[in-house]
């Protein structure tokens, strides 16, 4: 059965040992920390990160309960059971306000003060209770059962397998509150120095880890800088491609304007050709009317010649019958011959005119045929609007084919070539 804390009724021996323990402070020269050559002490970022990792502290607890199952010496006061009130000497107020220095547990920061790991959450496994025992999970016993009746969980003592605070610490790093009453002994002091050195090594390992994280962050920053440079280069290339695309688009627009002007010129020439064709048709109709009149005149002259021939035959018969009137007839015959010569000359002239008109007609028909062939070659059995539409579509197709490889390199927000 455990003895309860009976206030100040303790042997004088224990009082002298505890006062001696507090009056004889620990010489700081014997606590040595091993330094590693892997840690870069010149790096200011590493120093700041390591300092921030070392100086992190949890809030000052209102109460603290230490190991209750460890073997004790007669000089150490017995703690009360978990189900009773908190002992008188528990630090429920600032440390400097205590009157009796024998009741003060020596403050060893490298062992008692918890340093949370950078990759582990600082919250303990146990839920918060009324007496704030969750703030010091290292100071509990391995055989600690919770005293809060509202915590409905089975008895599960913290072990390296199920406690998040102990899974990264070796056995030698775990605090042993049974040493607090033996501070005055040389062996206990040596043990404390060993624990302090081990804690320093543990902190040094953390500093190395922090340094590795800093180096990794530097590498990530360098990769970020290279990625930014590459993105700037890609932006410049895209800007150059956009400018080239604009220039090509402008040149193609100029070509399209030239082709449109050429089409308009061709349409004007075609209209002029059609107007000339209409004039030629009119001239041909006039020439046809003139040739018809000339043919009528020629027929009339031929009839007149036939009648004259008949009259000549009649005159021959009359000359045969009427010899008396032969001279008169001869004179008349001469006159008639002259008339026939004149008519023949007129007939030849009319024939020449008819030949000339027929030749002019052939030339005009040849010209008209050549013009019609040219127009039929241009139109090819289509209307003027169809030819113009086909030319415009062919020019647009040429422009689209020229713009397609440029549009594939440009940004998706660039305007399409068809809209131009």
From TrEMBL:
Residues 1-183, 224-253, 395-420 are annotated as: Disordered. Residues 1-11, 57-66, 164-176, 224-250 have a biased composition (Basic and acidic residues). Residues 104-114 have a biased composition (Low complexity). Residues 13-22, 73-86, 128-138 have a biased composition (Polar residues). Residues 37-48 have a biased composition (Acidic residues). This is Uncharacterized protein. It comes from Emericellopsis atlantica. The lineage of its organism: Eukaryota, Fungi, Dikarya, Ascomycota, Pezizomycotina.
